[in-house]
Write a structure and sequence with these properties.
Largest interface: A-B, 40 and 40 residues
Shape of chain A: globular
Radius of gyration of chain A: 20 Å
Largest sheet of chain A: 2 strands, antiparallel
Strand content of chain A: under 5%
CATH class of chain A: Mainly Alpha
CATH architecture of chain A: Orthogonal Bundle
Order of helices and strands of chain A: HHHHEEHHHHHHHHHHHH
Number of strands of chain A: 2
Oligomer: homodimer
Number of domains of chain A: 1
Amino acid sequence: MQSSKKPSPPLPHMFERYRSEIAKTLRTSISDLQLKEIPNLLKYHLGWVDQEGNMSQTASSQGKALRPTLCMFACDALNGDISGAVLGAAALELIHNFSLIHDDIQDQDIERRHQSTVWSIWGVPKALVAGDAMQAVGDLTALMTIESGVPVNVVLKVSEILTESYLEMIEGQCLDLQFETRTDISAEDYLGMVGRKTGALLRSSVHIGALIATDNTDITDAFSEFGSHIGRAFQIRDDYLGIWGDASETGKSNDNDIRRRKKSFPVVYGFEHASGSAKEELISIYNKEIDNDDDVAKVMTILEDVGAPQYSGHITEKSAELALSSISAIDLPHWVDQEIGDLINFLVNRQY
Amino acid sequence: MQSSKKPSPPLPHMFERYRSEIAKTLRTSISDLQLKEIPNLLKYHLGWVDQEGNMSQTASSQGKALRPTLCMFACDALNGDISGAVLGAAALELIHNFSLIHDDIQDQDIERRHQSTVWSIWGVPKALVAGDAMQAVGDLTALMTIESGVPVNVVLKVSEILTESYLEMIEGQCLDLQFETRTDISAEDYLGMVGRKTGALLRSSVHIGALIATDNTDITDAFSEFGSHIGRAFQIRDDYLGIWGDASETGKSNDNDIRRRKKSFPVVYGFEHASGSAKEELISIYNKEIDNDDDVAKVMTILEDVGAPQYSGHITEKSAELALSSISAIDLPHWVDQEIGDLINFLVNRQY
């Protein structure tokens, strides 16, 4: 695929701008946990320490912190007080990471962000508890926004949005589990599922940041919609990279999504649009264990033949356009418009 | 043991009085979940439906609903509006049951309340997600107290107490996991662990009910302390019944706690007080798989020889006394005093 050869656009400046503030708040939240062992599991998962609890030397296993960055940026863009937003931002990152720890158990994934997953090192019971702890700390951190002067009714709204969105996230995970045994999922079914599983928390990230800045619901609703569209753009690009991305950049095992018979967007599109012997082959490969590179290559060829990578790119770009148009009526400062452009360019064209 | 032969005191009237109101609220909370399958797992776990989703004919697999009943009673006792308390009560029951679903995964328990556990039927991934969903619905239900007229600052306080107490609960689970591989746990260590694992949510149940009724912190603090003590009384009685109780009444497999080498209070006490060959035997049995009735009988004899059942009874009664004295300065109506007496008699002497 041509597009996978292009260099990745740089990580937009906003990620750097809020990084240390977000990290500081996350560290404070987690260090409030009193138990010896579990905080280390959380810090390991977040890429701060290695398995033995020693400070990690590389930043490669740390995530992009997309959700907290979006929350901070939304608040900042609307001239809000980012010292209130940072607690909401940290809560979002904790909830996101709680879901990853549980997701890895659910999917029996042994690698994430270039390192072994928590359950694969410490076992299911401890990983389960670590996820629950991460989630509870996330909830508490959201409630703590009250201490930074956010009005009580806004704090309550933030908590409600956060809880509703991770309920949506869980619903998405359930649908995902149901999809595993089906070969008749439409692209539309898939978008509905992933909109819950990944989209809800991304939408909430932008929504919560906006809510901390303003009580104008026209604006907060528009930002929420913006978040929803960039969430889809992000996820479909992720699915694309899960097949055609460079594993050394994405941090996932090579060909992981096909080898694990993951029904990501390009695969679902392939099932919907392949016909004849290609479709039969696709079904037959997906009905057994995929244990050789030949099968992976065959699936990739079928997907490429029906134009799955192009269609994935089309949906990503379409979502980016919808994101832009959902906030086009809001008068934002020049720097904000510019950074939104950078953000969207990154989400649509990133290689990792 | 003599005391296990006595008939159980009746379930206090308060359980019956609030039952239908609590059940109605729980049903509403869960029916708001939109997914087809997961709500059935939750309803099954709660004993409302069987594995196929058909209405359950027996109530035997339903829990006592201790936590929501305590919440309603605390509010009622202080002349509060129980229509506000019932949402808090439902939230507590949901959080408690979330922890049971995850606990059963963690401990690989195959039976609870006379029926197979969720993970043993539907597998770990779905049980994990079902637990997460139960927890999120619990959080949302707590926030919904705002709609029954509870002031916003009280709603926030309720959410905070709930989240903090399930964080404590999780910390207790972690300690419990750590204890599994140790034979040097003191009775005091154990009480600290179980005070978190079980006590925190029981304490919060009483505390939340009181908070919805009054803003007098002398009273709410006293109720919280009362909850803490009856929580301990409840747990130590539970541990006693886990060894000397009648399995047909408790709903657990016969001799489950010893056979599973569970380090419950009497066992920890036994490790602390047995000496010489008895202690060596205890350690040797606990260091292998216990797969025959002989080993179980041997452990029971050692525990009985050091007086573990009597000491467990002593701690249960002592906790009950402390519970009573923590609210003795509060002037409560006669019916409340009477029902507190019934409650404590039940918790201390129950056979199930």
